[in-house]
């Protein structure tokens, strides 16, 4: 009789498999990654991998969830400084993420949204809608907290501003995937985004360090 495996062990093992899969997707993109590639990277059998994931789409969605947690955590309102600085820092960090295509999931994400089963079967990928809503809500929390503290005086609804921010970043990512960061001038575009964002939320920057 095989020994029972604890839930803690299963979660730890699943996280290790997700981390291994993430490395493969970064190296090879989505289109050219197979379940066998992930097995080889993780050093496990086919049966072991399929006990956690149904197919390559399932693996990628779990990798997305893992990767998205960093952004969600970034938007937890901080008491250590101005919330405007928190937003600025996140926007500025996007430059590295967008330009460093060989070290991030950008290439794999673009391929997934354009080439996987997702475009023709969106109803079977509920997490894609969920992640958009979660990110929107996380940004809204920061904006609303800024309003509560008297730091932000937004000129549009916080929901609309949050969606604008997401749409701009996603569009810049897709353009950069297609054209390269030399042509899309990522740093310049993000500077324009920060300029417009500052006008939209009208922050009180007197105490900004």
From TrEMBL:
It comes from the Bacteria. The keyword DNA-binding applies. Residues 34-53 bind DNA. It comes from Shimazuella alba. Signal peptide: none annotated. GO terms for molecular function: DNA binding. Transmembrane segments: none annotated. Residues 11-71 form the HTH tetR-type domain. It holds the Pfam family TetR_N. This is TetR family transcriptional regulator. The keyword Repeat does not apply. Keywords: DNA-binding, Transcription, Transcription regulation.
């Amino acid at each position: 009789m095989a020994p029972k495996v604890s839930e803690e062990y299963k979660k730890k093992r699943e996280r290790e498999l997700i981390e291994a899969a993430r490395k493969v997707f970064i190296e090879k993109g989505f289109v050219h990654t197979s379940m066998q590639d992930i097995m080889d990277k993780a050093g496990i059998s086919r049966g072991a991998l399929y006990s956690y994931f149904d197919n390559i789409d399932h693996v990628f969605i779990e990798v997305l969830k893992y990767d998205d947690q960093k952004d969600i955590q970034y938007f937890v309102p901080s008491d250590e400084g101005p919330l405007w600085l928190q937003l600025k820092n996140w926007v500025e960090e996007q430059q590295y993420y967008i330009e460093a295509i060989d070290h991030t999931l950008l290439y794999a994400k673009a391929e997934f949204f354009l080439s996987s089963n997702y475009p023709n079967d969106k109803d079977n990928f509920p997490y894609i809608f969920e992640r958009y809503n979660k990110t929107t809500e996380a940004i809204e929390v920061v904006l609303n907290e800024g309003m509560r503290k008297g730091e932000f005086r937004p000129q549009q609804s916080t929901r609309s501003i949050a969606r604008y921010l997401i749409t701009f970043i996603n569009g810049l990512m897709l353009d950069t995937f297609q054209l390269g960061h030399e042509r899309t001038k990522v740093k310049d575009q993000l500077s324009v985004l920060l300029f417009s964002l500052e006008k939209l939320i009208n922050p009180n920057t007197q105490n900004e360090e």
